[in-house]
């Protein structure tokens, strides 16, 4: 398939640049076997059966955006993609002219020294007080998606984190989980729906465009994930009892499917470059709760693989006409898996 097969026109006013209150007040477009239904997130528990398993991502967004200067005084911006140790990181670098190895970027009360390149990322060593984690806490900013077109504020400090955010390492939120508050979680418990967690640290590559026309030529970015033995056991038990596994977000879907590349789900983790496109055969996930994604993005390709390409693109057209809110702070879709291929 080609990149333009995943294009759609989105009016700018449909982009949700601020969250709504409460978290669970979002709308929900339900792609069911009998057609599409306009619902609300508060309807989500009633759409599940007792014994189903809902899986969340427990990653936490770090303050990965650091502003600094080159020795010449020119402005520089680092986006920490991965912390390798207390002092070394891989980062994206925004400067007018890229430094050479040994070059310095001044940030807060210290400097990052460039050690080299790893693909599109820059390998830096932090030379300053404390480690990189403490630097980000005192001098970093939340790396809001570029389509917000604004700086982070106090509201984002809490609302761009999920209720499940435990393990720091993401540079973008697993946005489908942003809809869940105590009210919604209590309703799942009352419905006797079980929950579990995986970890996938969302990388900045999630916002990188697909630059090739033939999508299979796209090189997927790597992200770290972990599926615990407890979660793997809960999934096996759910399946054995006839329940369904509901992935909350494309990140959960990607983690679970990565852990099942051998044909069956195994606990463990590592790095995944799994690129899910139409034609992919899902091994674990039965239903997918997800937000609306950017045109021509790898995430839109994943949900098209899950729900069927024509069906998904038509649903997006319906959502735009019905004035749903799009992207990270936007509304949600619950997609029943397309078993037709």
From TrEMBL:
Its main location: cytoplasm. InterPro entries: QueA, QueA_dom1, QueA_dom2, QueA_sf. GO terms for cellular component: cytoplasm. Pfam families: Queuosine_synth (PF02547). It is found in: Cytoplasm. GO terms for molecular function: S-adenosylmethionine:tRNA ribosyltransferase-isomerase activity. Pathway: tRNA modification; tRNA-queuosine biosynthesis. The keyword Glycosyltransferase applies. It catalyses: 7-aminomethyl-7-carbaguanosine(34) in tRNA + S-adenosyl-L-methionine = epoxyqueuosine(34) in tRNA + adenine + L-methionine + 2 H(+). NCBIfam families: PRK00147.1 (NF001140), queA (TIGR00113). Belongs to the QueA family. Monomer. This is S-adenosylmethionine:tRNA ribosyltransferase-isomerase. It comes from Stagnimonas aquatica. The lineage of its organism: Bacteria, Pseudomonadati, Pseudomonadota, Gammaproteobacteria, Nevskiales.
């Amino acid at each position: 398939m080609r990149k333009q097969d995943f294009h759609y026109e989105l009016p700018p006013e449909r982009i949700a640049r601020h969250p709504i209150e409460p978290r669970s007040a979002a709308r929900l477009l339900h792609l069911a076997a009998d057609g599409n239904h306009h619902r609300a997130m508060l309807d989500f528990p009633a759409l599940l059966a007792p014994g189903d398993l809902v899986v969340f991502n427990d990653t936490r967004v770090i303050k990965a955006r650091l502003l600094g200067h080159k020795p010449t005084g020119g402005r520089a911006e680092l986006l920490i993609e991965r912390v390798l140790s207390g002092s070394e990181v891989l980062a994206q670098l925004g400067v007018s002219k890229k430094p050479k190895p040994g070059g310095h970027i001044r940030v807060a009360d210290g400097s990052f020294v460039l050690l080299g390149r790893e693909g599109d990322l820059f390998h830096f060593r932090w030379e300053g007080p404390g480690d990189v984690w403490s630097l980000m806490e005192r001098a970093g900013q939340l790396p809001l998606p570029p389509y917000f077109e604004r700086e982070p504020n106090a509201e984002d400090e809490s609302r761009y984190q999920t209720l499940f955010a435990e393990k720091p390492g993401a540079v973008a939120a697993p946005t489908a989980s942003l809809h869940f508050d105590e009210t919604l979680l209590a309703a799942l418990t009352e419905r006797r729906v079980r929950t579990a967690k995986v970890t996938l640290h969302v990388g900045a590559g999630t916002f990188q465009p697909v630059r090739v026309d033939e999508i299979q030529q796209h090189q997927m970015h790597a992200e770290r994930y972990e599926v615990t033995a407890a979660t793997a056991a809960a999934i096996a038990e759910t399946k054995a009892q006839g329940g369904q596994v509901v992935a909350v977000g494309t990140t959960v879907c990607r983690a679970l499917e990565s852990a099942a590349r051998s044909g069956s789900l195994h606990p463990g983790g590592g790095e995944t470059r799994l690129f899910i496109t139409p034609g992919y055969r899902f091994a674990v996930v039965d239903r997918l709760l997800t937000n609306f994604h950017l045109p021509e993005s790898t995430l839109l390709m994943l949900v098209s693989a899950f729900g069927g390409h024509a069906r998904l693109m038509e649903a997006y057209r319906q959502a735009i006409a019905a004035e749903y809110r799009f992207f990270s702070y936007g509304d949600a879709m619950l997609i029943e898996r397309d078993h037709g291929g």
